[in-house]
Design a protein that fits this description.
Pathway: Amino-acid degradation; L-alanine degradation via transaminase pathway; pyruvate from L-alanine: step 1/1; Photosynthesis; C4 acid pathway. By secondary structure, this protein is α/β, with parallel strands linked by helices. The chain has helices spanning 13-17, 25-35, 57-67, 77-80, 83-95, 110-124, 138-150, 166-174, 194-206, 229-242, 266-273, 277-280, 311-322, 329-339, 349-375, 399-407, 412-424, 454-472; strands at residues 41-42, 133-136, 156-162, 178-183, 210-217, 245-249, 283-288, 302-307, 380-381, 390-391, 394-395, 426-427, 429-430, 443-446.
Length: 481
């Protein structure tokens, strides 16, 4: 019988090689256990609403009216919806040519892009051009569009932080490029050393790889660190010297849990540095409605903004965006609402502030509870989650546990995470799915479980971990590998 194009052996090799650990073996096993009736706590993915975070009221009111515009003609609409939500729904519907069911411009609705530009100007103190802003189906789609534009073949490399969010490794593999890792230093709170960047580029060039772009994730995923202005300046200078485009993944910019290092955009730092660098470095910045106190992952709203990208290149990026015709329109409106929320004096302002502050304050508490919980466990060390929504503890696995994993054909941290899942129902992601130094093991968990559930979850983790270590530890003493 002749083989067919979609037979496994005939598939695109890049598809078969690409891995995405966040929805990998652990997630699939957790889903099986859930079907069998076991209670599973899915902390494997940053999905706030799935773990009980309540949607903000005002944007849902506006989107409800946009989705069902006939409600605006109902004489009782003013009893069901506040006047500012009604006005905002009319504002967005006026921007569309047929409501939410009609295609928009391939870059997104011009009025929403203008609101994004105003948000960026207010945040950074420098004007932003709506024509250089593309609305996308979540930040992930924007990242893939830009990587698709940058990667020309297997000899093109992208500098990616390790540990990294596997969107980057999977996308680079899928597009046929080469991932060039630069390692963050765990003992320096996941800091970045520019000398390591230079070494990574030199090693890549030795292998015949042309490094074309550098990714930063700030605040970090999975590591939770926030980059300082000094570090951002070093990164910008490095990219300028090496003629790299800087890709700034800044989707967690609302998620900050300490006061020492507030979020500052790469764009602001670049423009503060002044000419010639501010006029020359190519930068693409990404944001989304999926994170922060919005957590609207299923709405798939995002954007990217381009700085110092030549007009002809922007035209080519627009051409690629046009193949998909239009980003989803409800997601665009969510983005407009995120960058242009209720203002002081608006009817919905107090409720909006109360809800958003409540979510952030609770996340800050949960970041502390989780870090302290991990650090109370045997053979577990964890840096504090400064930002984003993840904890990335190092699990110091005893040699006997590593040996047991190898006998089963498992990566050691996969073995540990599977045992954790079976014993407690806590579904995490092994550190090997993000990349890590040889012989060092981690897991990633979100800090998103409900605040009232966190003590029981951490107690359950501690009980499992300490029993696991008791089972596998050599009691003559244990030293870190």
């Amino acid at each position: 019988m002749s083989s067919k194009p979609l037979d496994y052996d005939n598939l695109n090799e890049n598809v078969k090689k690409c891995q995405y650990a966040v929805r990998g073996e652990l997630y699939l096993r957790a889903s099986e256990l859930q079907k069998e009736g076991k209670k599973i706590i899915f902390t494997n993915v940053g999905n706030p609403h799935a773990l009980g975070q309540k949607p903000l009221t005002f944007p849902r009111q506006v989107i409800a009216l946009c989705q069902a515009p006939f409600l605006l003609d109902d004489p009782n609409v003013g009893f069901l919806f506040p006047a500012d939500a009604i006005a905002r729904a009319k504002h967005y519907l006026a921007m569309t040519s047929g409501g939410l069911g009609a295609y928009s411009d391939s870059r997104g609705t011009p009025g929403v892009r203008k609101e994004v530009a105003e948000f960026i100007e207010k945040r950074d103190g420098y004007p932003s051009d709506p024509e250089l802003i593309f609305l996308t189906d979540g930040a992930s789609k924007g990242v893939m569009q830009i990587l698709n534009t940058v990667i020309r073949g297997p000899s093109d490399g992208i500098l990616v932080p390790v540990p990294q969010y596997p969107l980057y490794s999977a996308s680079i593999q899928l597009l046929g490029g080469s991932l060039v890792p630069y390692y963050l230093e765990e003992t320096a709170n996941w800091g970045l050393d520019v000398n390591d960047l230079r070494q990574s580029v030199a090693q890549a060039r030795y292998k015949g790889i042309t490094v074309r772009a550098m990714v930063i994730i700030n605040p970090g995923n999975p590591t939770g660190q926030c980059l300082s202005v000094a570090n951002l300046k070093q990164i910008i200078q490095f990219c300028h010297q090496e003629s790299l485009v800087l890709l700034g993944d800044e989707v967690y910019q609302q998620n900050i849990y300490q006061d020492e290092r507030p979020f500052i955009s790469a764009r602001k730092v670049l423009l503060d540095m002044g000419p010639p660098i501010s006029k020359e470095l190519q930068l693409v910045s990404f944001h989304t409605v999926s994170k922060g106190y919005w957590g609207e992952c299923g709405q798939r709203g995002g954007y990217f903004e381009m700085t110092n990208i030549p007009p002809k290149s922007v035209e080519e990026i627009y051409k690629v965006a046009s193949i998909s015709l239009s980003p989803n329109v409800p997601g665009q409106i969510f983005m407009g609402l995120m960058v242009n929320p209720p203002k002081p004096g608006d009817i919905s302002y107090d409720q909006y502030v109360r809800e958003s502050k409540g979510i952030l304050e609770s996340l800050r508490k949960r970041a502390h509870m989780m870090t302290d919980g991990f650090n109370s466990c045997r053979n577990v060390v964890c840096n504090f989650t400064e930002g984003a929504m993840y904890s990335f503890p190092q699990i110091r696995l005893p040699p006997r546990a590593i040996e047991a994993a190898k006998k089963l054909g498992k990566v050691p941290d996969v073995f540990y995470c599977l045992r954790l899942l079976e014993a407690t129902g806590i579904s995490t992601v092994p550190g090997s799915g993000f990349g890590q130094k040889e012989g060092v093991f981690h897991l990633r968990t979100t800090i998103l479980p409900a605040e009232e559930d966190m003590p029981a979850i951490m107690s359950s983790f501690k009980k499992f971990n300490d029993e696991f270590m008791e089972q596998y530890e050599d009691h003559r003493g244990y030293s870190r590998m």
